[in-house]
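Record format v2
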Amino acid sequence: MEKSNAVAALAALAQDKRLDVYRLLVQAGPDGLPAGHVAAALKLAPNTLTFHFDRLRGAGLVSVRRDGRSMIYAARYDTMNALLGYLTENCCQGRAGRCLPAARTKRTPATARRKEPVT
Amino acid sequence: MEKSNAVAALAALAQDKRLDVYRLLVQAGPDGLPAGHVAAALKLAPNTLTFHFDRLRGAGLVSVRRDGRSMIYAARYDTMNALLGYLTENCCQGRAGRCLPAARTKRTPATARRKEPVT
DNA sequence: TGCTCATTTCAACGTTCATCGAAATAATTG
DNA sequence: CAATTATTTCGATGAACGTTGAAATGAGCA
């Protein structure tokens, strides 16, 4: 993933309603949900929802297809995973065991919690 | 992680220069880097860099400590991992194998959330 | 065809954002 | 102390953002 794509995806997710929408789709799975269902679930005005869907779609985070009168939106997991990968790329100079939990590292080294500096 | 924290973190990362700064710190590791080093590496004006550091810090993504005349900034991996976990929480109705690569499928379960203080 | 449902487009509003230059603060050195 | 280095604060500017209301499109049904 390139930087401009990552920024676009992060910007798309950096908004209350949009984050709700995206997570709902992520949790819904590959088959997606009709726009109306999302609008009802999150209590969003239909035009506002379209605005947010456009941004998510522009960032490559969701896909759309038409089904009769309904538009079905679905999360694009390929983009999600590319984004997560971009953020953690080469972390800790490649010694990922220092910062990522065991589940995210390729190997499974013992994860030692270190003390954080003052915020 | 709560939604407002996630939005704050995503907004902090959704900017060209800031994403560069953050990734540099993530790659640098737990010991962090002096502000001046970051400014030189990314060719940023010192006041602009302070502005961006403030946003990253406000979102809990980085920590600071003073070392003589230098301010040492470091990535907060706990927040990074909480954010990644938040995005993928309950994905595909819990059947994560459908959307996440093998290395990420052992994510922290959603049931393990705890309440955190507002910064 | 005319009608309804689902969703999108458009124009406008006030708000927040990133960057800049100049000045200020903090820690060290002579 | 004054000078130097490292970083932060302040005020201003133009651009982008999220929401709203009204109108328009597209698909299915009588």
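Chain A touches chain B at residues 3, 6-7, 10-11, 13-16, 19-20, 23, 26-30, 75, 77, 80-81, 84, 86-93, 95, 98-106, 114, 116-119 (CB under 8 Å).
The mean pLDDT of chain A is 87.
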